[in-house]
Design a protein that fits this description.
- By secondary structure, the chain is an alpha+beta fold.
- The protein has 10 helices and 23 strands.
- A hairpin with a 6-residue loop joins β9 and β10.
- α1 packs parallel to α2.
- The protein is elongated.
Length: 418
């Protein structure tokens, strides 16, 4: 009997303990929660009877405390559709339109520039939008070749940039209406020069003389009669007329003197021998000119110093000597075109130089083109530099000026000035 009671106690004791724990647990939970609040749901799968009792208690009691007792302001999701912001779980909430806060000027990358045959430029952005621009009003159909641009600007020394920003002070033609002191510019402006007569005597100024028979007339109307002058003048004119231009040069007459005696003789001066070569240019204002050597100084020489910029050379007439000096000073190579001309001592003259681009051009048109000078139908070097790796030359077959690599082999003809 005692043994049976002991066994029964062993089976009933856990149930007693369990019931006590549940009661204690129930008291603790009931004392610590607000039963009117939201539910706490234990979604686990209880194993022991104690866990099952706990779950049952929790599931059947409102166990979440709402601090402000307001169920409409709990954490919720926000939704943005287009530009409208809404909040979930509150159907009475106001929708917020964010359109006024948007900036549609976002920076985008241009993905394509395209122009069609009708001068329409299409610009496409990365978002796919595009814009068409009609460029017809901005187009100029005038197309110049490289040779035309070179001939107009670089080779002829025209200004391509307005240096001082003023178009009223450019180089202009000057003319006079023969009124003393009046000079007119090609833009229509007139300048009056007040010339001071040093001795206050208007009767002794430089004047034009003319001869008629035995009478010498002065521009102001005065004259003087020289007996026998008419006969002397006839003899002089006959004497001049009987000599050729070459004979007059050989007799010591200067090119400018011959030109002054008869302006029509300018072309006749070209190709005539004078001071060691052939006359190829005459400045009719100051009497200076250019003489080409009788023969080529080289059938194949380089301009020299490729990829070295000499700098400062010019295209123009009367600059070949300076160009040659710059090349000699800036290029240490031997046997180059400028050095060959600079070292030439020919027919008693040692002041030869390599011609500038424009000086070379006068040699072509005033000598080669008219059959003078024994020139070859090939390219001759000038002393004008184009850039670090190119110099300027001229084809004496076609007459075309062009740029050539400094290390290419070209013909050389020296010139000198008088």
């Amino acid at each position: 009997m005692k043994k049976s009671c002991y066994v029964l106690f062993i089976f009933l004791f856990p149930l007693f303990v369990f019931s006590q724990n549940v009661q204690v647990l129930g008291g603790i939970i009931a004392d610590s929660i607000n039963v009117n609040s939201g539910h706490i749901r234990n979604l686990g799968n209880p194993v022991s009877g104690q866990d099952a009792a706990t779950k049952s208690y929790v599931d059947n009691n409102d166990a979440v405390i709402d601090a402000d007792a307001d169920v409409t302001n709990e954490i919720q999701d926000l939704n943005l559709v287009n530009n409208i912001l809404t909040i979930t779980n509150n159907g009475a909430a106001t929708d917020i339109d964010l359109s006024s806060y948007l900036d549609n000027t976002d920076s985008q990358i241009v993905t394509l520039f395209a122009i069609d045959g009708s001068n329409i430029l299409t610009i496409t952005l990365e978002d796919g939008n595009s814009k068409e621009v009609d460029l017809s009003a901005y187009l100029d159909d005038t197309v110049l070749s490289e040779a035309q641009v070179d001939a107009y600007a670089d080779d002829n020394g025209y200004l391509t940039i307005e240096i001082d920003g003023s178009v009223t002070n450019e180089i202009q033609d000057i003319s006079t209406d023969n009124t003393p002191g009046n000079i007119t510019l090609s833009d229509g402006s007139t300048l009056n020069l007040n010339v001071t007569d040093g001795d206050a005597n208007s009767m002794n100024e430089l004047q034009q003389l003319s001869i008629n028979e035995d009478t010498i007339f002065i521009e102001n109307g005065n004259y003087i009669i020289v007996d026998g002058l008419a006969k002397i003048n006839v003899i002089y004119n006959l004497s001049i007329a009987s000599y050729s231009v070459q004979q007059r040069l050989d007799a010591g007459e200067t090119p400018i003197s011959i030109y002054s005696s008869d302006n029509s003789l300018l072309d006749s001066l070209y190709g005539k021998t004078y001071q060691g070569g052939l006359i190829c240019h005459l400045n009719t204002f100051n009497g200076t000119g250019l003489i080409a050597a009788l023969n080529d100084q080289s059938t194949g020489a380089e301009w020299g110093c490729i990829d070295t910029l000499i700098g400062g050379t010019s295209n123009k007439l009367a600059t070949g000597q300076a160009n040659t000096s710059l090349i000699i000073a800036g290029c240490g190579e031997t046997g180059i075109a400028a050095e060959i001309c600079n070292d030439l001592d020919n027919l008693g003259y040692d002041d030869w130089f390599l011609p500038s681009k424009d000086e070379l051009n006068t040699m072509y048109f005033n000598l080669k083109f008219n059959g003078y000078g024994n020139f070859d139908n090939d390219i001759y070097w000038s002393s004008t530099e184009k850039q670090a790796d190119q110099g300027k030359g001229q084809d004496f077959d076609s007459g075309v000026s062009d740029n050539y690599s400094k290390d290419s082999s070209k013909l050389v003809r020296a010139v000198r000035a008088f």
